[in-house]
Write a structure and sequence with these properties.
The complex is a heterotetramer, with 2 copies of chain A (244 residues) and 2 copies of chain B (321 residues). With 244 residues, chain A is α/β, with parallel strands linked by helices. Helix content of chain A is 22%, strand content 23%. The relative contact order of chain A is 0.15. The mean pLDDT of chain A is 93. Chain B has 2 domains: 237 residues, 3-Layer(aba) Sandwich (Glutaconate Coenzyme A-transferase); 35 residues, no CATH class. In chain B, 32% of the residues lie in helices and 18% in strands. Chain B contains 12 helices and 12 strands. In chain B, helix 1 packs across helix 2. The chains are: A alpha/beta (244), B alpha/beta (321).
């Protein structure tokens, strides 16, 4: 997943990074095809080059050696709302048919089955980033037809489509999972299968999604990670196995 | 024309007292400036979270507080477990990089130690509440929340129509906490505080508050502050109390002083999972010590040795003309 | 005027300072009865202790050795609108019966007799400062019953009273002139004579004002500047006679 | 449900090009990024006013510009006299500490060299227009202008009703200039710029603009910038061109580099009082030189000697952890 997510990043992209897999993917991209990636963390570090794997979004290693430290007011108003972010990474407990993401609550808001951490910066990333990449393991529980709570808006939903809502950003353009890649249909924004990992069957993917999954005509065959990529991830970027 | 209302509505604007009068112990600062029922903000985004103040508030058994913070973090988890909180205003409630906040979840899900009211935003929304409070504007407009369910569960998120474009924008209301507790690397005795590394929303929270308790790693001479005025984030004129409390942000961190104690953040998962364990921890590390100094002694020298910052000092710049 | 204006400042006041006479008055007050005066300049210098008489509001001498440098956004939003300023100094080409100040235009706005510099920060100082001190030489031309243009609102005028307008600040509380001091009547905000310099007759003052000037029952007799004050001003604070 | 508008409305967000590609001469930067009819902002409150860029714009005979700045200062007086400006958006139009701006007054009062449209705010109002533009909000609310005649002569100053208190607040519309020219003390080749001393509205103007030309006293290595990231005000990702132009802010100043040339500000009163005198000055000091370097040679070493900054270097701080 980290390897495939890294490939979604283009050299020179300005990326709003989260901790964990997004951070790994960004650093892998920086070490391979995208040396000019600019990493921005919601905590305020701009152009960070952490010399250790950050343990939190506000790790001091993100600050030391960065290009700039911005207040959170500037991060949200000038960078994110200001339209300066090309890529935002999001995760979530649930992702639905239209790419809406739930990181707030499983069950009812007032009577939760599981209370999750909440939005943090996720809602505004989903609204403003030019394109959003979602990384999450695929399962029918995590990919229902409709999320219990829309924390971060996708391509359509009960409040309307992105176009109707005049969303400045593009929304979730790639959902990178452990078995394949989903992307919104250009017609109606419904997530469809666009790429598949080696040795994975389309029917297996369909079984892990809570709606009748459409499959794009030309399905990308995702190559396995190269030895170099695995070496970078396992021995250089996350030697302490914090995330792998 | 009738009454002109001369002098009406002038801001309360406290006089700047003679500098050294603000220097006091944490115990005095909390007893003087934090009251039952207050809206309290202890900010710091991962960086500069003033656990020393939270522990003193717990020891002084403050009650019915409305706690406000983007990330409740361990600090509010502890205050909630200790029964200080009536309400929580927040935007991301987790143990950052680790998992859940169990005391918070027990209070919300089971009413232990008592029911906790919550009011929830995204980071941008809560940041904007502080920004509005700091600027003494009643609201702040933002382009956000369209397509999200957040406004459905928080009626404080409203809308306004732009008088130029006709566009509908989201709004959040100003918040003006009764007291803000701000941790900084250093300040002079008058409370002119310098912060580097992550700023979080420290400036906005301080300016929004009616009273400010400033807690610092170091008290330095006014000359040090005046030598690099662009580094000053909080001016002394808005500060009521200055507390010198080295390591006051542990287990969070202070750039240039000590690293984040990630081991403790990880350990908190087990400490806090059951109510009894958390109360035992409070008994030992909060109620069992008189002040921050005793806490540090109890923590032991090995922890400080492990977390002590290495030197990576930048060059100065020229203020000459 | 500088001596008398200095006396309006209280120790510990946070003062929004302008260049010229206000700057002199503030530095005289700092050197005498108000050592804890905090000087804030709209350019962003907070707690400035200039070691030379600033030649502009953005003089580098205001920055070097100051307590803090704030962006202008912070100066106007957090300090001024935030209610952190006790005293604002204003001047202007015209001051009227209710303390409205004109620094925009003499004559009509669209067909000016004299085009003045405009508001700068004056309008917001008049709205927000806890109290405003105005320093200006008295003459019938400069003190008409009604100003040609209200740049900075006083106590009442065609838009309403301060109370009706919910102005957060107190407005012009002292008008320090070269012959006496005016202050708003507590009843209706009309400026009346409350203090007079030595060897000045009340009738002379009345002749220099464009409305029937009321005289407060207990008129302050302003003492002449002491030798110490004159020495401070002439030899220490403005040795190059830039403003005196 | 019909079209979902996938990918619609994504921000233009230019890719960050490889760093050194942004380094160019002032002549190239102006010819590439400043066009006839543009809304142009050259900011800097007394400090860091980029006269070098203004002179190049005059030399390249740009026309019909809408010039925007809190204080037009000598820089826009010169551009107006040279016939570059169609409109001026401002908040205080004087020669600071000296007197009038005569070219501006001739244009407004007599239409010399041609009629100049003006749009007038207070400092707070115009600052707020930049802040709104920088945040890509269509308007900015402020508590101001009540009781003033300014809204009567500028219909862009409007009002909005607070959705919480019902209070009426003033508003100003966002401004998003076509190009902002920002002078800074130093930057790396990618345009990450550090400023100390007065900030003015440089950050807001830069973020509000569609294109940014950054002009600096010194190009430094990325390592210098990264050693003190809290000092960085403008990130390279929003910068299109980086111009190395020492003394480019003369007769204004650059803290730590050179003092304000107050003698020239005083002399401008006489130079500009009559149109012929001003044109003669432009002929000699703008049209008569090819670039900033020739301007400095013409100015002579004595001026630079007089204005050169003394050393008053502050201490660095520790970024270690």
């Amino acid at each position: 997943m980290a390897v495939r997510a890294a490939k979604e990043l283009r050299d020179g992209d300005v990326v709003f990074v989260g901790i964990g897999l997004p951070n790994l993917a960004c650093n892998l991209a920086r070490a391979t095809h995208a040396p000019n990636l600019v990493l921005i963390y919601e905590s305020g570090a701009v152009g960070a080059v952490p010399d250790r794997l950050p343990v939190s979004i506000g790790d001091p290693a993100l600050v030391t050696g960065s290009l700039s430290v911005a207040s959170m007011a500037d991060i949200f108003m000038l960078y994110l709302q200001g339209g300066r972010i090309q890529v935002g990474f999001l995760g979530g407990a649930q992702v639905d048919r239209y790419g809406n993401i739930n990181s707030t609550v499983i069950g009812k808001y007032d009577a939760p089955k599981v209370r999750l951490p909440g939005s943090g910066g996720a809602c505004e990333i989903a609204v403003h980033a030019e394109r959003v990449i979602v990384a999450a393991a695929l399962s029918a529980r995590s990919f229902p037809a409709e999320v219990d709570f829309i924390t971060s808006p996708g391509h359509a939903g009960k409040h309307g489509t992105r176009k109707e809502l005049h969303q400045p950003g593009g929304g979730p353009m790639r959902i990178v999972t452990d078995v394949g890649i989903l992307a919104p249909s250009p017609q109606d924004g419904e997530l469809e299968l666009v790429g598949i990992y080696p040795k994975v069957e389309v029917e297996d993917v369909k079984a892990k999604v809570g709606w009748p999954l459409r499959v794009r005509a030309t399905l990308e065959q995702i190559p396995p990670p190269t030895d170099d990529e695995l070496h970078l991830l396992r021995d250089v970027l996350d030697p302490d196995k914090l995330y792998l | 024309m009738t009454a002109a209302g001369i002098g009406s509505g002038g801001p309360a604007g406290a006089r700047a007292p003679v500098s050294s009068a603000k220097l006091m112990s944490m115990s005095d600062a909390v007893s003087r400036y934090v009251h039952d029922g207050d809206v309290v903000v202890i900010e710091g985004f991962t960086h500069l979270i003033c656990f020393a103040a939270a522990h003193e508030i717990i020891r002084q058994r403050r009650r019915d507080l409305t706690l406000c913070r983007l990330t409740p973090d361990l600090i509010y988890d502890q205050m909630i477990a200790a029964g200080c909180a009536k309400k929580l205003i927040f935007s991301w409630a987790g143990n950052p990089g680790v998992g859940s906040l169990f005391a918070l979840r027990r209070a919300v899900e089971k009413g232990i130690p008592h029911k906790l009211e919550i009011e929830e935003y995204s980071h941008y929304g809560l940041m904007a509440r502080f920004a509005a409070g700091a600027a003494k504007l009643p609201f702040w407009p933002l382009r956000n929340y369209r397509g999200s369910d957040l406004p459905d569960v928080n009626r404080q998120i409203r809308t306004v129509i732009c008088p130029y474009t006709g566009e509908e924008l989201a709004t959040v209301p100003a918040i003006n906490p009764d007291v803000a507790i701000i941790h900084a690397q250093r300040a002079d005795a008058g409370g002119d505080a310098q912060i580097w590394g992550l700023y979080g929303v420290q400036k906005e929270a301080a300016f929004a508050a009616k009273r400010v308790i400033l807690v610092v790693e170091e008290i330095v001479s006014e000359a040090i502050i005046r030598a690099d005025p662009n580094r000053t984030l909080i001016p002394g004129i808005i500060v009521d109390a200055v507390v010198h409390e080295p390591w006051g942000a542990h287990p969070s961190y202070a750039q240039g002083y000590y690293d984040r104690d990630n081991d403790f953040y990880v350990a908190w998962e087990n400490i806090s999972k059951e109510e009894a364990g958390l109360q035992a921890w409070l008994d030992e590390f909060v109620f069992g010590v008189a002040d921050r100094n005793e806490y540090l002694l109890k923590l032991g020298p090995a922890v400080r040795e492990r977390l002590n910052a290495e030197d990576q000092v930048c060059e100065g710049v020229n203020y000459g003309f």
